[in-house]
Write a structure and sequence with these properties.
Layout lengths: L4 H9 L19 E6 L9 H11 L1 H6 L3 E5 L6 H5 L6 E4 L2 H6 L7 H7 L8 H11 L11 E2 L5 E6 H7 L10 H11 L1 E3 L2 E8 L14 H6 L5 E2 L2 E5 L4 H16 L2 E2 L9 E7 L2 H9 L5 E4 L10 E2 L4 E4 L6 H12 L3 H10 L9 H11 L9 H8 L3 E2 L8 H17 L4 H29 L3
Parallel strand pairs: 1-2, 1-3, 7-10, 7-11, 13-15
Antiparallel strand pairs: 3-14, 4-14, 5-11, 5-12, 6-7, 8-9
């Protein structure tokens, strides 16, 4: 879609960007107010620079209603260090939320949300609850420091041609995790000890979406999690549900029925956890005439749970223009124009559940090969609030991630048993969190809090 250029994107938009709906015009000062904006930048061609004119096209409605405001696009990823130094963007999209909140670097949006009567129920509640939980990490006050940038979810993409070749039936709605695993095992073909056809590539985004572990929704489906749902200073990986989930997924990996290597597009993998945004674009561009479709994620022991990204838009607490920055963030997240623009531009899943049927229709219009791919399964996941973004540890989150990923790597390599690894990393993460709690208490005491 990026390759179409500004004219192509504008043509796709049709009349959907006529206005901002509820957006309130801002009267800027005599001199132009310049906002620095870090937008979402993931595209299959990696073309961040080529996205600039397209993004400028998409924000024209905001600029038209806010005379005297300019928006400059800034691509380097924001960091705690850049915001601490005052060089970060005014409005930014990112996914590492807790570090910014812990260092009081983001503007609390609660007063603005209250003032403008923003209805948070239009967003998946699991996502908003995650933001609220991390909002309690602020040393100053609990708050809501961001709103969803978009919703990215996954479904099971299945190469039906390979199932036909293997003489296997197609998946059916309501298939359990055991039924999916059985299919993966039956279609896997090994040659001299190495797989020439593998049952599945699953989304192996570990804790904080790094490393070699499963994404949080796998654990949640079994009744487990990375973080204790009632206490973000405690690890939950020693619980039966977490252990069962890891034994299931790594057992399949070690048997060869599941791979950590993406191969769906090359035809070496029968099914894969693929979804909206960049994933769906890559399938449109690379699957050719192969017969494939989307199916529901497995029904887990504890019910239906699917992946959700936790990417957000937030305002730099040091911005010189907080009110205008809020109007821009509201344009990106609360109003519909930008969300509809990104649907057309990159098939990005919108952040509101109510917009997902429009997303499916847009995807079929922009990429006609998707018209028969059962996009409704992703719509249903979002609208039924089945998408889950996971959680994070309160104090030493990056250290916890490193510890967890280290043990997950050992599990993947078969050098440690799952129960032993889970017990050991839980103890180590809890010790890290206790250190963090002690350090926070010491800092508060020294500051007279």
């Amino acid at each position: 879609m990026l390759r179409g250029g500004v004219a192509g994107a504008a043509a796709l938009l049709g009349g959907s960007l006529v206005g901002c709906g509820k957006a309130k015009p801002v009267t800027a000062a005599a001199n132009p107010v310049v906002l620095l904006w870090h937008p979402w930048t993931y595209f299959t061609d990696g073309g961040s620079a080529s996205a600039v004119p397209l993004y400028q096209e998409g924000i024209k409605p905001f600029l038209a209603q806010n005379k005297g405001v300019q928006v400059t696009i800034n691509f380097p990823n924001p960091s705690v260090a850049s915001l601490t130094g005052g060089a970060g963007p005014d409005v930014m999209e990112y996914w590492v939320l807790n570090g910014f909140v812990q260092n009081n670097l983001l503007l609390d949006l609660t007063p603005y949300i209250s003032k403008d009567g923003v209805d948070l129920s239009v967003f998946p509640s699991n996502t908003i609850n995650f933001y609220k939980e991390v909002g309690t990490f602020s040393p100053q006050k609990a708050g809501l420091y961001c709103l969803p940038a978009y919703i990215h979810t996954l479904a099971m993409a299945v190469n039906l041609s390979l199932l036909d070749d293997a003489g296997q039936p197609y998946p059916e709605p309501g298939w359990t995790w055991e039924e999916w695993a059985s299919m993966w095992q039956q279609v896997t073909v090994k040659n001299d000890g190495s797989s020439s056809r593998t049952g599945a590539w699953l989304y192996f985004g570990g804790y904080n979406y790094s490393g070699t572990g499963p994404a949080p929704f796998y654990l949640r489906g079994f009744g487990g999690d990375y973080v204790d749902p009632t206490d973000p200073t405690k690890c939950y990986l020693d619980q039966p549900g977490s252990i069962q989930a890891l034994e299931w997924i790594y057992g399949l990996l070690q048997s060869g029925a599941v791979t950590m290597t993406r191969g769906f597009q090359s035809g070496s993998v029968v099914s894969a956890a693929h979804g909206s945004a960049g994933s769906i674009l890559s399938l449109v561009e690379n699957m050719g005439n192969v017969t494939w479709s989307y199916y529901e994620t497995p029904v887990w022991p504890k019910g239906k749970v699917a992946y959700a990204a936790d990417d957000f838009y937030a305002i730099n607490a040091q911005t010189k223009h907080p009110d205008i920055a809020w109007e821009f963030l509201k344009f990106l997240t609360v109003e519909n124009s930008w969300q509809q623009f990104m649907m057309h531009l990159a098939l990005t899943g919108p952040n509101k559940a109510e917009l997902w049927p429009e997303w499916a229709a847009t995807a079929a219009q922009v990429a006609p090969t998707l018209a028969d791919k059962n996009l409704q399964v992703m719509v249903d996941q979002v609208q039924n609030n089945e998408v889950y973004p996971g959680s994070v540890f309160r104090y030493n989150d990056s250290s916890a991630a490193s510890t967890i990923n280290g043990y997950l790597t050992q599990i993947a390599q078969g050098t440690i048993e799952v129960p032993v690894a889970c017990q050991t990393m839980t103890q180590q993460v809890n010790a890290l969190e206790q250190q963090g709690a002690a350090a926070a208490a010491s800092t508060s005491s020294a500051a007279g809090v």
